[in-house]
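User: Um, any thoughts?
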Amino acid sequence: MSPPRGDAATMPLLATCWTTAGDAAPQVGDERSPLPLRARIETAAASGWSGFGLVHADLIAQRNSQGGLAELSSILRDNGMEHLELEFLGDWWTSGERRAASDRVRDDLLGAAEALGAQTVKIAAEMADPNAGGDGHAAAAADPEVVLEALDALATRAAAHGTRVALEPMPFCRTIRTVHDGVAVLEAIKNPAAGLCVDIWHVYRTGTDYAELVGIDRAHIFVVELDDGLREPEGSLWSDTVDRRRYPGRGDFDVPRFVSAIRATGFDGPWGVEIISEEHRARPIEQSLPELTTLVRAALAAADPAPPRH
């Protein structure tokens, strides 16, 4: 039985893929974690986490191993991992070779989501800056109507596999930069299998006041991610997001106020934690995960309580 979600000490926490990956980072060569997957899951469970995230590269390595996805399913179940998310799919709105490559990743992720019972697959919008994680394919942003049609089709396909897709607005995206941009897209397609990943880092770096989150329809929020950072980016936005994120409570983001705003929408977890930084990658997860558990639960406890359910 899942613990009650009204108490900060028992609210479910989900360690996103990079939080347990050790010396691995997004779009930096081989994205596979150097750490054994079993050890990552067992350490997270022992540290109080009941949710886990996997990046595509680690997922495929496990799928191709002797134990395959069946072994992974057993490890997750044996360690009480009730919440699972997979990532990261981009280029789903494109055509040609880029779309063909994206569709292969899509099929991998959706197939694994069905086999493992993953609730969510995270997806990316179009990057604007080639130095911010994109590769500068297009001179102009994608046709908005094409994006809407492709997202609707992707969400429908995900639902057929028993999962859903969470679109992550980011400050270096061409058009879907803010949470409000994401909401507009969701309201245009009205597909219940499409929602948002709301990461405090992206919300803060787009200059969105947390108070503006309160009015978001709870049904649109699939994933929430906590982390922290300094008031101003350290280096480029991309280097700040992949090398300089901080543990909740050790930066300027005011994590409890963000949590309060999200709770006001009716969201009640699991609370994802996405720490991507050079400092974090250098630490043993046997040290970092218990510390993160303490800091995240402190931030949850310091936030305003969730409104009563009716």
